[in-house]
Design a protein that fits this description.
Helix content is 78%, strand content 0%.
Length: 329
């Protein structure tokens, strides 16, 4: 690799190291924002649970107070009805006629109806001079009165006064007045109880408002932490793209340098290879030998240039001669 490529690779390496350092710093920053958001969310959830429990407690107290107020209104209605009946009895005692716009109370009307029923029943049982026609008329009227009595009993039973002695006006008035006073006292006690509950609820409203404001603040802190973490993460993603591009570029240059070195080494090996070491040549000759059955070699081999070494000691052949002995006769 030439000097220019080495400088370029060094520049890329320095840029990569700088980016990786920046990535590490940005990841730490993102993790800090994420942790801040998580803590804010945990605190928000905790305080919201407290707020939920407090709201449920307030609702229970309000329902209790509401039930007491409703009950107080019921006793107030009974008191007003009793006082209205007292006024009716007082007017009857004084001999005042009721105007067409005035309506009798259920208790007074029930007492009058019961008295009329008793009178008719007594007449039917004791008066033997009544004609058949008159008797049938009284029985028909008695039947209507009994139906009316059955309709008035549930209304009058709310005050536990089913019978009023119209013959003793003063006693009936005093009885109704005692009942009205009792209903008024119960109403006052119930309202006092409801007021005490309201006094205990008022501090809860202040605490509820504080918890709600604190929950909103923590939620806003959570949103800001998430937003900051997301922004840093987005920057990390963009920077990672550049880092990957530089890494890919460095890998490409390294691969290019490796190929240059391999090509150079191959070229050197090929320049130092003699024909007898050429594998391709050997394979080609083998194929030709198989096809033609003979080869004609030309050229020289590396061993052809070797000078044979002459032996220093020279052996001489020894001539053997036969020795003849004396001739025999």
């Amino acid at each position: 690799m030439d000097v220019g490529n080495e400088d370029q690779e060094e520049d890329l390496r320095n840029r990569l190291n700088g980016m990786e350092t920046k990535l590490k710093r940005m990841r730490n920053q993102r993790n800090t924002f994420t942790e801040t958001a998580r803590r804010a969310a945990d605190s928000r959830n905790s305080i919201q649970n407290q707020g939920k429990e407090l709201r449920e407690k307030i609702t229970e107290h309000l329902e209790e107070q509401k039930a007491i107020r409703i009950k107080a209104k019921e006793h107030q209605a009974r008191r007003d009805a009793l006082q209205s009946q007292i006024r009716e009895l007082i007017n009857q005692k004084r001999g005042k006629r009721e105007s067409s716009n005035d309506t009798k109370s259920s208790i007074v009307e029930l007492s009058e109806t019961v008295g009329e029923i008793e009178r008719i029943e007594r007449q039917l049982m004791t008066d033997g001079t009544i004609s058949l026609k008159k008797e049938n008329s009284l029985l028909k009227f008695l039947k209507k009165l009994i139906i009316k009595k059955d309709e008035l009993i549930p209304l009058a039973s709310e005050f536990n006064l089913l019978n009023i002695d119209l013959g003793d006006m003063e006693g009936s008035i005093q009885l109704l007045k005692a009942e009205a006073d009792n209903e008024h006292k119960i109403m006052i006690d119930l309202h006092s109880n409801a007021d005490e509950i309201w006094d205990s609820i008022k501090p809860m409203f202040e605490e509820r408002d504080f918890i709600q404001a604190e929950g909103d603040r923590l939620h806003q802190s959570f949103l800001e932490g998430r937003k900051n973490a997301d922004e840093v993460h987005a920057s990390i993603v963009e920077l990672m793209k550049e880092v990957n591009e530089i890494r890919d570029k460095m890998k490409a240059e390294i691969e290019e340098g490796r190929l240059v070195i391999e090509n150079h080494n191959r070229s050197v090996r090929e320049s130092l290879t003699t024909p007898d070491q050429d594998e391709n040549l050997a394979n080609t000759l083998s194929e030709k030998l198989m096809q033609q059955g003979s080869l004609t070699f030309g050229g020289t081999l590396r061993d052809d240039f070797k000078i044979p070494v002459k032996s220093k000691s020279k052996k001489h052949s020894r001539k053997l001669r036969t020795t003849r002995g004396p001739k025999r006769n």
